[in-house]
Amino acid sequence: MSSPGAGGAAASSPLKLEYPQSLAVYDDYAAAQKTVDFLADQKFPVEHCMIVGTDLKRIERITGRLTTGRVALGGLLSGIWLGIFVGLIFALFTEESFLGILVSCALIGALFGVIWALLGYAMARGQRDFSSVTQVVATKYEVLVEHKVAAQARELLAQLPGATPDPFA
Fold first, then answer.
1. Is 56 exposed, middle or buried (0-12, 13-18, 19+ CB in 10 A)?
2. pLDDT recorded at residue 5
3. Total count of domains within the chain
4. How much is the pLDDT for 164?
5. Quick one: pLDDT band at residue 90, thresholds 50, 70, 90?
6. What range defines the domain where residue 91 resides?
7. Residue 1 counted as domain residue
8. How far apart are alpha carbons 61 and 115 in whole angstroms?
9. Together in a domain, 142 and 101
10. Which pick of 21, 44, 86, 169 has the fewest CB atoms within 10 Å?
């Protein structure tokens, strides 16, 4: 029996390399991109390369305190948008007043949004009284190449000024 990831499946997926080997490891994406760009300029078959972000970390940036007023305002605005969207869909399939449908759906959406947001905020019971945005970022970027072209890639990379082809970095 063969495994699903072996052989032909690896060649058919654009995000897989056949027996990948590390060419170099960098601290930022721009340096990894510069390496692949240099290889492309040297007529290297870059379709055998891959840049992989590793050592992922989650960053959360606190954007402010949550208060009942802010939660209600956010619910109101998102409810209005949802109401307008539903109103536009209703208006397409009815003979009634376009403006009347739009305004009534926006008002119902606003009411629904405020109630839903305040209910969710009350259910949290003060365990998260702040708003934030999160992002997942890589701390290292590794350039991988297929085994059959790894030696050629290393030779070319040695010609790049300032390049350090260190697979153990």
1. exposed
2. 46
3. 2
4. 58
5. very high
6. 67-128
7. no
8. 27
9. no
10. 169
